[in-house]
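Obj.: predict assembly geometry.
Materials: sequence records (below).
Method: joint structure prediction, all chains together.
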Amino acid sequence: MDIKNILKKKKKHLWQYLILIFSGIIFLILLSVFKSQRLNQFIVFIAFVSFYICWGIYHHITDNRLNLKIVIEYIIIGFIVILLVKLLLI
Amino acid sequence: MSKIKDFICHLFIPNEKNNYQGKALHHDFLTVYLLFALILSFIFKKIDLNILGFATDITIEKLYQLTNQERIKNGLSTLTYNEKLSQAAYLKAQDMFNKNYWSHYTPDGKTPWDFLLQVDYDYEYAGENLAKNFLFSQGIISAWMNSPSHRDNILKKEYTEIGFAIVNGLLNGEETTLVVQMFGKPINNIAKLSEKNSPLSIKKIQAATTENYKLIITNNNKTISLKNYFYNFNLAFFIFLLIILILDIYYINKLKIIRLSAKNFSHLIFVVFIILSLIIITKGSII
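Observations (raw structure tokens):
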């Protein structure tokens, strides 16, 4: 699979990736807005992680590749982030 | 040697033996990371509640050292640490928690200079910088140096002495770490002796706060490595995850592998945002 094919495949889901990147930017902006408010920042983290899990599931549904293992993978990664960030914020 | 090489390849590079996905990204490994994070979170909560009770890696020594470094860089004399200024700073921080405000002036109209007089510090020049909810001392000094008014305070040539207080408490219902930096130049001793007759009540407050203040310094020293350690651990873990995801994407494309697992490109985007967020959360606010 050369770069052109990868890009062609990625183009199919380009808007979904754009939404993920856009939400990531919003997430960083919100963290800056809630600067020094640790609880609010932690809520923003939870919201972003929840969005990411939902995004992952939706993305694989549209790709007809959704299975339980994939859902668990997204949930595990999300929980790792929440637990580690919790150490720093609250 | 070849066994180590094989093991590293097994961990990070997709091949037939690891079902075309680096073992470090398999579900069992991800579960181990999750359990480790869970244990770490539990241990930290125990230590934090039972022993330390502090949520930052800010120390008076570091703040003092960094402030003087900035002054030296700008060709100014270093400031002498003054216990009375630190006590005034501690009183100010406690007052902010007790009356629930975040400002240089108290809701009942007291100025920062009233706290200096409260600890019997007669000043010719005085200044105050405030910061809250930073994770590291360096972040506070950088934020102050990037703000013209705070920078002017740090680099004011008239000041000769400095004091700090780092106090934890509840501000607007949220756990907050306040840092108060007080600058001063005392009126010379001869003038002070001739005009000052301190009231007894002021000396009482001073005696009561000295003990608390010493406690703050002691507690804060204990946290030096802990918070720093957790931050570095977080950063190192997510960079590790980023590297194995990049390796995975690279080899998947190179070896033209098609597999039925989650797309690591999306994980990669997610982890990049998490790493960027870790940089943002170290910053607090200043006034």
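Conclusions so far: Chain A touches chain B at residues 1, 6, 10, 17, 20-21, 24, 27-28, 31-32, 35-39, 41, 45, 48, 52, 55-56, 59-60, 65, 67, 69-70, 72-74, 76-77, 79-81, 83-90 (CB under 8 Å).
To do: check interface contacts against the pulldown list.
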